[in-house]
Design brief:
Blueprint (H helix, E strand, L loop, with lengths): L18 H7 L12 E3 H6 L2 E3 L6 E12 L6 E14 L3 E3 L22 E9 L9 E3 L2 H19 L8 E9 L4 E9 L10 H12 L10 H4 L12 H8 L17
Antiparallel strand pairs: 1-4, 2-5, 3-4, 6-7, 6-8, 8-9
Helix pairs in contact: 4-6
Length: about 260
C-alpha cells in the first residue's frame, strides 16, 4: 500500500537515519544533503516539487516497519523488511506550477575517490572437504564466488535447494590493494545459495551493515536490533568507513544447473 505524504510528514523518516544511504546519495557531484535535499518522487510531490522528465534516480535500500500479532502469545511485535527506494536530489526537481528555470547546479564537490579494490582471495578452510591444507587462492570476486557455488551445489545435491537449515561453514580472507585485509570471514553455504543472493560480496556487505546499524535481519525485532544502531553499545562505526573505502563486489545469483544463464 502506497504511503500518502503531507508537507510535514514528507520530511519524517520513521526508520531513522541511515549513515550508509547518506554516503551513497551524497556521492552525486553537488552539495545536496541527505534527508534535507534528497527525497523519493512521492515525497517531492508532497513538498510541492516535480521531478524533471528524464532524470535518473539513485537506488537505496530502505526498511518498512511491520507490526504483527503473535498467534501464540497474542502480543504485538514489530520488525522491518527491506525494500528498494528511488530518490532524487534538489537539482533534479522544479517547483510545481512555476516556470521551469534553467538548471543551476549548486557548487560542485570533488569526485569521490575510487574505492580500493581486492587483489587476492584466500579460502582458508571449509567443512565441505573441497579445500586442501593451506587453502585455495583466487584473484577475483567472480572466481571465488564460482568456487563457493561448487560447495553450494554439493549441499544442494545432499540436502536439496529448500533445506536451509543444513549448511557448510567456509572461511575466506580478502586482501586489498593497500595491503589491508578482511580476514577469516565465515560464510555459511547451503544449497539455497544457488538461487538466492548469498554471494560472498553480499555476505560481506550484510555483515558490515549489520554492525553499522544499517541492516536489520528479518528474524530480529526493532528492540533486539536497537543496540546495533548508532549510539547503541554494539554499534561499530568503523564498518561504515570500511564500506565507503573498499570495493565490495556483489555477484548476480547463479542459475540452477541445466538452465541457460542470461
Amino acid at each position: 500500500m502506497q504511503t500518502t505524504f503531507t508537507q510535514e510528514t514528507a520530511r519524517v523518516f520513521e526508520t531513522g537515519y541511515s549513515q550508509i544511504n547518506a554516503l551513497i546519495v551524497e556521492m552525486a557531484p553537488c552539495t545536496c544533503k541527505a534527508y534535507e535535499d534528497i527525497f523519493t518522487y512521492n515525497r517531492w510531490q508532497a513538498l510541492g516539487f516535480q521531478v524533471r522528465k528524464g532524470e535518473k534516480a539513485t537506488k537505496i535500500k530502505t526498511w518498512k516497519r511491520i507490526k504483527k500479532t503473535d498467534d501464540k502469545t497474542g502480543k504485538d511485535k514489530s520488525f522491518s523488511i527491506p525494500r528498494t527506494s528511488n530518490v532524487f536530489c534538489r537539482c533534479q526537481v522544479d517547483e510545481i506550477g512555476a516556470e521551469p528555470a534553467p538548471v543551476s547546479v549548486p557548487e560542485t564537490k570533488e569526485k569521490p575517490a575510487e574505492k580500493i579494490k581486492a587483489v587476492k582471495f584466500h579460502v582458508t578452510r571449509s567443512e565441505s572437504g573441497l579445500v586442501p591444507d593451506g587453502g585455495l587462492e583466487f584473484a577475483t570476486w567472480q572466481e571465488t564466488h564460482d568456487f563457493m557455488q561448487t560447495i553450494a551445489q554439493e549441499e544442494a545435491d545432499q540436502y536439496g535447494i529448500s533445506e536451509i537449515s543444513a549448511y557448510c561453514k567456509t572461511w575466506v580472507s580478502i586482501f586489498f590493494e593497500d595491503g589491508e585485509g578482511y580476514e577469516d570471514a565465515r560464510c555459511d553455504i547451503h544449497g539455497h545459495a544457488l538461487t538466492g543472493d548469498r554471494d560472498l560480496g553480499t555476505h560481506i556487505w550484510e555483515h558490515c551493515a549489520f554492525y553499522a546499524g544499517d541492516f536489520q535481519p528479518k528474524h530480529m525485532t526493532d528492540a533486539e536490533y536497537a543496540p546495533y544502531k548508532p549510539g547503541g553499545n554494539l554499534h561499530v562505526s568503523d564498518f561504515v568507513e570500511f564500506m565507503n573505502k573498499y570495493e565490495i563486489v556483489k555477484i548476480k545469483p547463479a542459475i540452477l544447473q541445466g538452465e541457460k544463464n542470461v
